[in-house]
Amino acid sequence: MNESSQDKQVITAYGVSKVLDSEHPDFREGDLVWGTTGWEEFSLITETETHRKITYTDVPLSYYTGLLGMPGLTAYARFFELCSPKKGENVFISAASGAVGQLVGQFAKSIGCHVVGSAGSKDKVDLLKTKFGFDEAFNYIKKSMTWQLHCKGMKSKLFYVGNIALSVDWLTI
C-alpha cells in the first residue's frame, strides 16, 4: 500500500525554528523562535501563542529545548511552585537522570536540600552521584523504593518529585 504524504502525521515537539516568512506583526524573517513545531524541514505555523521569540542568542540554541525549554520550565514549576522545600529538607526524585529530573536535582542542591534520586541502571546512578552531585542515588530495579529510602534515612519530611508512574507503597515510610 502506498501512502501519500498527506496521510502521514508529522511528529510535533518543542524545538527551535528560524522564521523564513511571516505575516504576523510579532515575527519577522530571520527571527529565531522556540515552541511546538513539526519534525520536518519546513513547518507552517498558524497558531503563534505557544511560540516565543529567542532574544538571547549568547547561549547554544539547544538550551531552548532543555534548560530554557519545556524540561526546564517543568522542573522549575514542579520544584519551586509545587514543592517549595527549604534548606536541609529531603527531596526524592524518580527518573532523576532524565531531562526534568536532573534539573530538579540541581535546583534542590542549589538551595541546600538533601537530594536522593532513582535511576534504572548503574551508569545512570553513577552519573547522578558524580556529575550532578546528588547526595544519594540508587537503582530502583535492584531494590525497592521503601527499602532504599528507609536506608537513606529519609523518614522526616520528604518532597517527592515524580517523573514516572510507580507504586506508592514507599509513601508509608
Task: Describe the overall structure.
GO terms for molecular function: 2-alkenal reductase [NAD(P)H] activity. This is Alcohol dehydrogenase-like C-terminal domain-containing protein. Keywords: Oxidoreductase. Residues 8-49 form the Oxidoreductase N-terminal domain. InterPro entries: ADH-like_C (IPR013149), ADH_N_2 (IPR041694), GroES-like_sf (IPR011032), MDR_fam (IPR045010), NAD(P)-bd_dom_sf (IPR036291). By secondary structure, this protein is of the alpha/beta class. It has 2 domains: 10-65, no CATH class; 74-166, Rossmann fold (3-Layer(aba) Sandwich), CATH 3.40.50.720. It is built from 4 helices and 7 strands. It has helices at residues 70-83, 99-110, 122-130, 145-151, and strands at 12-18, 32-38, 52-53, 90-93, 114-119, 136-139, 158-161. The strands form 2 sheets. Strands 6-5-4-7 form a 4-stranded parallel β-sheet, covered by helices on one side. The longest helix is centred in the middle third of the chain and has 14 residues, at 70-83. It starts with 11 loop residues before the first strand and ends in a 12-residue tail after the last strand.
